[in-house]
Amino acid sequence: MTTFLKGHGTENDFVIIPDAENAVALPPSAVAALCDRRAGIGGDGLLHVVRSAAHPDARHMAEEAEWFMDYRNADGSVAEMCGNGVRVFARYLQHAGLVAEGDVAVATRGGVKAVHIDKEGLVTVGMGRATLPEGDVTVSVDDRSWPARNVNMGNPHAVAFVEDLAQAGTLYDAPPFTPASAYPQGVNVEFVVDRGPRHVAMRVHERGVGETRSCGTGACAVAVATARRDGHDPVADGTPVTYEIDLPGGRLSITERADGEIEMTGPAVIVAEGEIDADWFAAIETVNP
Ligand SMILES: N[C@@H](CCC[C@H](N)C(=O)O)C(=O)O
Fold first, then answer.
1. pLDDT digits (tens, 9 = 90+) for 73-118
2. Coil, strand or helix: which one is 229?
3. Which subcellular locations apply to this protein (predicted)?
4. Which of 30, 89, 137, 263 is the most buried if burial means most Cβ atoms within 10 Å?
5. 288 labeled binding residue
6. Radius of gyration over alpha carbons of the chain, in Å?
7. pTM
């Protein structure tokens, strides 16, 4: 019997599989089937909840964080980090009585993240520092192109400022970029418009997923790219800066502190819990191991 839950953070939604001892086989085919919105449960990604000590990718973090977020994209691929995912993961731990409200450390492939669960339903995560690798790129949609800022939040992002979010088109397919060699592992692409002082709106095409209604690492990348465009560099200035980021699924607040650390705050919700049909689940592995 395999239990699942469903949760979301600003409508970036996840199938959650509690599996403390890492006993559930989750090959890419099983993840893709579970995340399928028509034939499965449906989600932008999957959060496999495992004790750090029980997972080979997380054993080295077990002293610092009891729980490991084994994150997968909807197509079954593994990504380094998921910002909304880690907030929903912490909300799940609280919901299941595995941690109390307040501070919790979560192990991820991007390192141990400090999360704070508050009384009002908001969850804040310390996302670490952004890096802005040299070599900006050009992103295209149909016959329009924009320069994009290369921002790494543990995972890769290309941030393009546009006049209107409709210019991003359907975002069904990944927007092409040049040079084609820029992101050998693929990239998440954000399109951004201004809404007001330190306030922008964005849409995103996520690597391994498609267009999603929110992306936490993407919102952090957008906040950093917008801050630099606006002449703010908190480390150089010694002054933190906060941006409000509107996404189709809600609002995230991103602060880049004077030490360069980035904090993201937003809601995280558990919406359902159930059992996966054992025959259906077994058939996925038999047909497509
Ligand atoms: N939705 C996530 C990002 C998930 C990973 C991404 N698709 C990638 O492949 O890098 C977020 O909230 O950060």
1. 999 999 999 999 999 999 999 999 999 999 999 999 999 999 999 9
2. helix
3. Cytoplasm
4. 89
5. no
6. 19
7. 0.97
